[in-house]
Amino acid sequence: MIKSSHPHRKPGYELNGVALKPETLMMGYGYKPKLSEGALKCPIFQTSTFVFNTAEDGKEFFSIAYGKKENTEKKELGLIYSRINNPDLEILEDRLAVWDDADMSAVFPSGMAAITTMMLEFLRPGDTLLFSQPLYGGTHHFIEKVLIQYGIKAYGIRGGCNYNEIKKIIEENKMQETLAMIYLESPANPTNELIDIEAFAEIAKYFSKPNKKIITAVDNTFLGPVFQQPIKHGADLVLYSATKFIGGHSDLIAGVCSGEKNLMIRVKTLRTFLGSVPDAWTSWLMLRSLETLKIRMKTQCENAKKVTSFLCTHPRVEKVYYPSLHQEGSEQHDIYKRHCQDSGSMISFDVKGGEKEAFKFLNSLKVFHLAVSLGGTESLAEHPYTMTHTDVPDDEKKLYHLTDKMVRLSIGIEDADDLIRDLTQALS
Ligand SMILES: *Cc1c(COP(=O)(O)O)cnc(C)c1O
To answer: So where are the chain's domains?
Structure first.
C-alpha cells in the first residue's frame, strides 16, 4: 500500500528500505527527542516566536519562507513565528501526510478553514466549481452564499453520477471553458451515497488544459484516512474536518488539507496570510489522537456493523443507509469495492413514521447522546432533516431521500451490546 522511499519523507520513515506502516510511524515519526532534552513525547511548544542563533540565520529563514531564495540544499525551514511554523504543527503535518501517502499536509483551526482556504487559493472570478450533492452544510453555504459574491459560479451534481453522466452535464451546461475545480464529499452525509472519485478525477483530466489544471478535491471526513484514500483514486487534494475521527474525542476543532507538493505550497502560503493556523495545544492534542486513530476507527466500524445488522431486522426500522449494504452488481457496490477498505461508523436509518416517531426515539436514548458532530469515542444520534440539514431546500431533500423519518448515528467505541440494548429500548 505504501511506496518505500517517498520523496518527501523524513529519516525514520523506513526500516531497511521498507516503509513503516502509519500505525507504527504515529509513535515517533518526525520528532527528535535530542532536540527536547530527551523527552519521549513531543512537548507543547507554547510560544509565539523563536530565537534565531544569528542574524544570518534569520535572513535565510525568511528568504526561504517567502520563496525569495530557492531552497536548493533542501534545508528544513528554520523556526520563525508560530503563524508560519511550530514544532507541534510540523510534526503533526508530517504524520498526517503518511496516512494519505501525500507529499505534504496542512493543518487548520477547523475543517471549514481548510476547505475555504483551499477553495480561495484555486478559484478565481469567472471560474466554475462543480460539486457533489448533498454537501456538508457549512461548505454548501460558503459555495452558494460567499464564493458567488466573488464571481465564482457553482454547479451541484448528484454524487452518484457515473463518468458519462458527469461529462454530459458539463457539456450541456457549457462548463468546459470555465471549470476549475471538482469538489466531492464521499460518502455523502447523511445518505452514505458513495461517489466514484476515479470517474470525477478522469473527467478533471479530460477537461484540463496545459495552462489550466482542473483540481479534484475530496472531503474524506467520513471514511478517511483509515478506510478510504482519495489520492490513490486520482484526487489532487484530500480534506478533513479533523474535529471528527482524526481528533476523535469530541474535544477539539481542526481541519486538514493534504496533497501534492506544488499545490500544498500554495495552500500553505495562503494560510500564512489568511492566518488560519492552529495553535500548539490543538496540534499536540491531534498528535496524541493520531496514535490511536486506527484502533478507534476499526473498533467503531466493528461496532457499527453489529448495530447495522440489528437495525436491518428491526420491525420499526424501514431502511438502513450504510456503505457496505449495497447490493452486489450495483454501481454503488462497485464503487465500494474499488474505493473503500471498510464501511466506517456512520449509519443513517428511517424509522417507520415521521418526525414524531424519530423524535420519540431520539428522546428515549440513554447511552447515545443527542448531539450533532461525529467520529468521537462516544456514540451520538441526531435528526438531519431538522438539525444538520435544516438549511437544505425541500426539493433537494426529496431528491436525496432525506426525510423527517431519518436518524443519523455516529458509533463510538462503547460495548456494542450496550449500544444495541439502548437502541432496542428506545425503538420500543
Ligand atoms: C464537520 C464537517 C465539516 C466542517 O468541519 P469543522 O471542523 O466543523 O469546521 C466539513 N465536512 C464534513 C464532512 C464535516 O462532517
So the answer is: 294-427
Q: What is the pTM of this model?
A: 0.95
CA pair distance 245, 290, nearest whole angstrom: 9
pLDDT digits (tens, 9 = 90+) for 32-41: 999 999 999 9
**Which CATH superfamily hosts domain 294-427?**
Aspartate Aminotransferase, domain 1 (3.90.1150.10)
3 state SS of 183: strand
CA distances, 60 to each of 65, 78, 83 (Å): 9, 9, 18
State the distance from the centre of ligand 1 to the C-alpha of 129, rounded, in angstroms: 19
Q: 391 — alpha (psi -120 to 50), left (phi > 0) or beta?
A: alpha
Interval 9-18: pLDDT, tens: 999 999 999 9
**How far apart are the C-alpha atoms of 322 and 301, rounded to whole Å?**
11
Which of 68, 28, 97 lies closest to 291 in space, CA to CA? 28
Task: State the number of CA atoms in the 13 A half-sphere of 355 facing the CB.
Answer: 6
Measured CA to CA, the distance from residue 173 to residue 171 in angstroms comes to 5
For ligand 1, whether the C-beta of 243 sits within 6 Å is yes
Tens digit of pLDDT for each residue in 340-382?
Answer: 999 999 999 999 999 999 999 999 999 999 999 999 999 999 9
Q: Do the beta carbons of residue 157 and residue 191 sit within 8 Å? A: no
Mutate to test the pocket of ligand 1, among 115, 141, 184, 221 (most ligand atoms within 8 A of CB): 221
Looking at ligand 1, which atom is closest to the CA of residue 114?
9
Q: How far is CA 219 from the centre of its chain?
A: 4
